[in-house]
Amino acid sequence: CVTLDVQAACRDTTVTQELLKEGFHRDLLVKVELGEDAGGCAVAARMRLPPGIYVDPYELATVQQHNLTKAVLIPDVIDVEAPEYLARDLLLLLFLEPDVCCSRCFRAAVPVHTRYHRPAEGTQEALVVLESPEVLLGCCHSHLSAECWEPAEVDAPCSSDNTCPCQWHSTKHRPAYEELMLRVPVGLREHSTLVCALTLLTTGLCCGLILAAACKYGHFS
């Protein structure tokens, strides 16, 4: 009977992820509907980004200056030029804003970018899987239901502009989809010989044109 009462009191928290725009440069939109009122707590989504996708820390700093997105990126130094097979996972703490249309709803978007992948054999696409994020509440003054929320082992501030540590709480949630699939176009491995030959031919032709122009119009003492 106690278990049934707890389940009835703790309504499911629902999480939805969407990738907006097309191509290698997208916006990741995260929407959360809490099972209970946040009561003035900070709401965040803690997500792990696989090596195939990343957030540019310089771009993130720019959008945060314009109050478009609030987030903490770990680590905060990232090689944005590295391909997928040389990159590492990233941890993103995305702070959500209240949705004016729903008292228990929160949302936020962050620009993300896809990394280049190795050429594949027999397919022109690689899959990048984004798992459903962990929903966190950072409460400095409010009290949450102990049956629904439990302390989370997260070392992070209450907000992106407040360095004071905050006690975060987490809850089990029901993702609208277990994971989000991003399809990335890749080259075909069987075309590697043709691509290398055309690249060498183009490079040699361009070098020849530059050398011819230098000999024709250059002034040599």
TrEMBL record:
Record keywords, A-Z: Endoplasmic reticulum, Glycoprotein, GPI-anchor biosynthesis, Membrane, Transmembrane, Transmembrane helix
GO cellular component: endoplasmic reticulum membrane
Pathway note: Glycolipid biosynthesis; glycosylphosphatidylinositol-anchor biosynthesis
Signal peptide boundaries: none
Pfam family, one: PIG-X
GO term, biological process aspect, one: GPI anchor biosynthetic process
UniProt entry tagged with the keyword Transmembrane: yes
Protein origin, superkingdom: Eukaryota
Transmembrane regions listed in the UniProt entry: 192-215
Primary location class: endoplasmic reticulum
Localisation: Endoplasmic reticulum membrane
Membrane topology: Single-pass membrane protein
PANTHER family given in the database record: PHOSPHATIDYLINOSITOL-GLYCAN BIOSYNTHESIS CLASS X PROTEIN (PTHR28650)
Annotated family: Belongs to the PIGX family.
Biological role stated in the UniProt entry: Stabilizing subunit of the glycosylphosphatidylinositol-mannosyltransferase I complex which catalyzes the transfer of the first mannose, via an alpha-1,4 bond from a dolichol-phosphate-mannose (Dol-P-Man) to the glucosaminyl acyl phosphatidylinositol (GlcN-(acyl)PI) intermediate to generate alpha-D-Man-(1->4)-alpha-D-GlcN-(1->6)-(1-radyl,2-acyl-sn-glycero-3-phospho)-2-acyl-inositol and participates in the sixth step of the glycosylphosphatidylinositol-anchor biosynthesis. Probably acts by stabilizing the mannosyltransferase PIGM.
Annotated protein name in UniProt: Phosphatidylinositol-glycan biosynthesis class X protein
